[in-house]
Amino acid sequence: MIKRAFDVLASAAGLVILSPLLLVLAVAVKLESPGPVFYRATRIGRGGVPFRLFKFRSMIAGADRQGPGITTAGDSRVTGVGRVLRRTKLDELPQLFNVLKGDMSVVGPRPEDPRYVALYTPEQQEVLSVRPGITSPASVRYRHEEAVLTGPDWETIYIQQVMPEKLSIDLEYARHASLRRDIGILAQTFLALFR
After folding, report:
1. How many helices (H) does the chain have, and how many strands (E)?
2. Res 70: pLDDT
3. Is residue 181 predicted with pLDDT exceeding 70?
4. Distance between CA atoms of 79 and 82, rounded to whole angstroms?
5. CB burial class (10 A; 0-12, 13-18, 19+) of residue 99?
6. Per-residue pLDDT for 157 more than 70?
7. Per-residue DSSP letters for 92-126?
8. Can you point out the beta strands (E) in 30-189?
């Protein structure tokens, strides 16, 4: 109950305070390339329930039908504005709507694409016992994940190395989550933006 109250207050306050920035970013996305302002991706949430995750569109329209579900280093589908949005993580701000709606939490394991959730072991599926978050300990650690996913075997690297490591970190979080820890992770996330 306390975590949900914190999520509602934080996301509502964030949307109000950041509304001028959200408007500027929406206009920048729209002016650079044709297509919608938001990208709505299917992700798996708490209890294994699919939901639509909101992001500012950082790729050309229809990019999800023209390549892999994970963005790799130097992906040609990413727009100029999209590169800035991704580097600064500003593309994630619309997920405040997901938090307000109850699909997500401010802090929690990052929601994954259904294709990769299907590969989870029974132990890894425990991560689905909590609401996914905008940020997590694993997302702080793997802030520059795209740089790791290079070369022709990028998906193998993701499935065999990156995904298990991220899940291990987020499983530990899910088993020991607390509001105090969430505030610490938010502080780490903020500091990571400047590294």
Report:
1. 10, 4
2. 67
3. yes
4. 5
5. buried
6. yes
7. GTTHHHHHHHTS-EEESPPPB-HHHHTT--TTGGG
8. 38-44, 50-56, 105-107, 133-135
pLDDT at 183: 93
pLDDT digits (tens, 9 = 90+) for 106-144: 999 999 999 999 999 999 999 999 999 999 999 988 887
Ramachandran quadrant class, 29 (left: phi over 0; alpha: psi -120 to 50; beta: rest): alpha
**Structural domain span for residue 60:** 2-192
Closest Cα partner for 4 from 93, 107, 94, 95? 107
What does pTM read for this prediction? Answer: 0.85
| Domains contained in the chain, number | 1
- Which distant-in-sequence residues (6+ apart) come within 8 Å of 155 by Cβ? 68, 70, 149
CB contact set of 176 (below 8 Å; sequence gap of 6+): none
